[in-house]
């Protein structure tokens, strides 16, 4: 397995959270912040954690925080900012709204990586999840070129990358990467767990 010294964890926490009504990273589930669930899943398998957010309150968590290089440009800009700041070839990327995420799934992403792969992305019943993925640092160049052309969609990045591999998740694993975007999603999560 790839050594953790060669992997950075990047958590994207810069979204507007308009459907949740409050910053998703600071929503609590099981007495723990959403962002802390992501940190806990990443911690055993990465060398460093970077949080991409323009909100200084993330500094209280004690991890390196970087701001979006290109404001108001969505997760593509967040990914670009995190990859640019990273000092490692491999980077596990998570959005801050996947509180059920486990280290096991992240380890499977790493295990799927082969030399020359640009990204390993989770796939749930034919839906691609570009924000639960492993990216090579060099992907920041593709992000940059897309952003400079006015592109904001993560799926355009996936289409542009040369050698992407997909980790197809089973039903149980699929639950672990579920985005909790709204108060209704949170209610459903609380009722189910």
Describe, in plain words, how this protein is organized in 3D:
- With 193 residues, the protein is α/β, with parallel strands linked by helices.
- The chain contains seven helices and nine strands.
- It has helices at 34-42, 74-85, 103-112, 139-148, 154-160, 171-176, 183-192; strands spanning 7-12, 28-29, 32-33, 48-52, 64-66, 90-95, 119-124, 127-136, 164-168.
- The strands form two sheets. Strands 5-4-1-6-8-7-9 form a seven-stranded mixed β-sheet, sandwiched between helices. Strands 2-3 form a two-stranded antiparallel sheet.
- Helix 2 packs across helix 4 (139-148).
- The protein is globular.
- The model has no long low-confidence stretch (mean pLDDT 90).
SSE layout:
Elements: E1 7-12, E2 28-29, E3 32-33, H1 34-42, E4 48-52, E5 64-66, H2 74-85, E6 90-95, H3 103-112, E7 119-124, E8 127-136, H4 139-148, H5 154-160, E9 164-168, H6 171-176, H7 183-192
Parallel strand pairs: 1-4, 1-6, 4-5, 7-9
Antiparallel strand pairs: 2-3, 6-8, 7-8
Helix pairs in contact: 2-4
Q: Which terms would index this structure?
A:
193 residues, globular, 9 strands, alpha/beta, two-stranded antiparallel ribbon
